[in-house]
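note to self: dont lose this again. the chain is below, predicted strucutre after it. 98 aa total, dont forget to put it in the shared folder this time
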Amino acid sequence: MSKQKKTGSLLKFSPFLLSQERIKAWQHWQHCTSSLNKKREAKARAELQHRSDKVATLRQDIAENERQQELAQENFDKISKLIKKEVCPGGSKKYADF
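---
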């Protein structure tokens, strides 16, 4: 069976699984955002305490977390677009906020 055919049958027969994947992607995105905010707060505290060694490490961590957050958001957007395309191919207004 080709990949296209497997994907098509999955989309037709398991809307629950699709929504679960979208939820997982959203949760991962939110986790990355939360982690990024915590790192930024830790960096601010370290700067107030004049701990330059910790600040340098946290800057690198923040840069990595920003990349992870962007990737998670892109993944969520891709999954949402795919689901919207497959579930409501006519562009129904009912799913406009999906």
